[in-house]
Write a structure and sequence with these properties.
Largest sheet: 2 strands, antiparallel
Low-confidence stretches: 1-5, 166-170, 200-273
Order of helices and strands: HHHHHHHEEHHHHHHHH
Number of domains: 2
Strand order of the largest sheet: 1-2
Number of helices: 15
Strand content: under 5%
Oligomer: single chain
Structural class: mainly alpha
CATH superfamily of the largest domain: MFS general substrate transporter like domains
CATH topology of the largest domain: Growth Hormone, Chain: A
Amino acid sequence: MPVADASPTRASWAVLFVHGALSMFFGYALRPLISTEILDGGHSSAWLGLATMVFAVPPLVLAIPAGRLLDRTGERPWIVGGSIVYLVATLLVLLSTTFEGTVNLAMLVIASGVIGLGSLASILGSQTWVMHGAAAGRPDFWFGLYTFALTVGQLIAPALLWLPGAAERHTLATEPIAWTLVGVAVVAAVLGTFVPSHGSPASGGAAVRKVRSVVRRVRQGGRDDEGTVRGTDASAGRSRSGYAAPPTGEIEIPPGSARKPGANEAAGLGQDDDREGMLRASLRLTRREGVLRTLVASSLVIASIDIVIAYLPLLVRDRALDAAWIGGLLMARAVAGMVSRLFLSRLTSWFGRRNVMVTGAAIGAVALIAMATPVPAWALGVCIVVYGFAAGTVQPLTMSWMTLITPARERGLMTSLRMVGNRTGQTLVPVLIAGMSVIGGGALAFIVTGCTLVLSSLASMTAPDGDAVGRRER
């Protein structure tokens, strides 16, 4: 559980942004490569849906317990660990090139699942970190910058897909791409060690000792019903983790540091090792107003991005286009998403968060459905730019929405719930599309995905427009 919602330093923000860009670079290069390898092996397009579904399974199963564990350990181990798992996935893809047939296919599908595990660790750590950093104010701005950094990685990654391949440019250069990604994963892991964890009982070190020292000094003064010790001791200033203590001097007592249970512990929040308590906390959080809607809106947008990444190689192949179009279209989508996030704060101030989310999801739906029609290649580019801009506005706004309705002590858990929701969409939508793509090819996959964005638009109709929602509960 974090000690305080304090603002990280600029250097910490910069390191996190660079790490996030490298993580996106990895995923947006390796996953299309896996899809192309599956198709090049002569396998059915239904296997693309299976690989996409397997990617979503680890976060779906592990996200909630991982989030509770993160609230105890801090974010850094997860950010570093995600990069290491990415490295393992790349090595699996390299190893798969030495086999053929079902062995090759099995290793590619397993690699997709390992990427999902790395995504769980990396995203859970970084998004929880940003939630704490953005809680002090301007969440749309900070999440806009964060997702902008991610989009930089998404923008650069498709350039790897332009490396010379074989078979008259209808495939990709697997080994050069994979070895490049090995280097990216190593650099990301090293950078992750410089991201300071938000102080926590299990990882705060000196910060926790200071908290307990303050607790002992003010024990006679008691504490309030929220388990908060009020003091003005200057020693509770900046911790070694790189965060400043809140100016009010309010410090949250770590679980187990007090003799009598506080409100949080009575509610089951302090029983991190108790699975039943974890499930109760999760269910209680889903009953908060707006939580289910933001989970639905977020999951469908994320699932649509997954489908675009996984099925764009099939759509390009169905249109008899050069494999270079895969990288070009993905890059165009990334540029559009980057532009949308640069203007995200201004768009929400002009039109309101709710209007931007509802309209953005609806426009994205129209763009994906249009891509399924027999339009020329340049029109595909226009459609994916429109989709990229629309999805680029909605995705970070769901994070802002989530931050505004979640108490600070439960943001790690909320990030996990969001990931569970996202991966549920990433599991169910590919299952729905896998069979359809065998019948209707990549076009039908894009039509169905566009329809799911209509549901995301409807779910966003109750999104808050202001920044004050839930502030009193932090």
